[in-house]
Amino acid sequence: MTLSDREEQLLEWLEDYGVIEAWKPTEPLAIGNVEVEMLDKLMKRWRHNLTQLRDMRLRWFAFSFDVEYGSVGSVRGVGRLGDN
Predict the structure, then answer these.
(1) 22 Cβ neighbours under 8 A, 6+ residues apart
(2) What residue spans define the domains of the chain?
(3) Tens-place pLDDT, residues 35-76
């Protein structure tokens, strides 16, 4: 599955789940190879919880991938700048 295909599936799932600005966590989740089935299992417990905690849990999960993969990309970018 391509990254853009995974992003489309995740965006659809996040919108259905009711995430506000669902596009924001989509990319980090897709880069982290998270699939819809995994989100179903992880978030099932909070699906009908209408408090902010439901959304926060999902955003923290996505943020963990953003930090991990974003940091790797930053280090690579700095390395390329240092090569000049």
Answers:
(1) 11, 14, 15
(2) 3-82
(3) 999 988 888 877 777 776 777 788 888 888 877 666 444 444
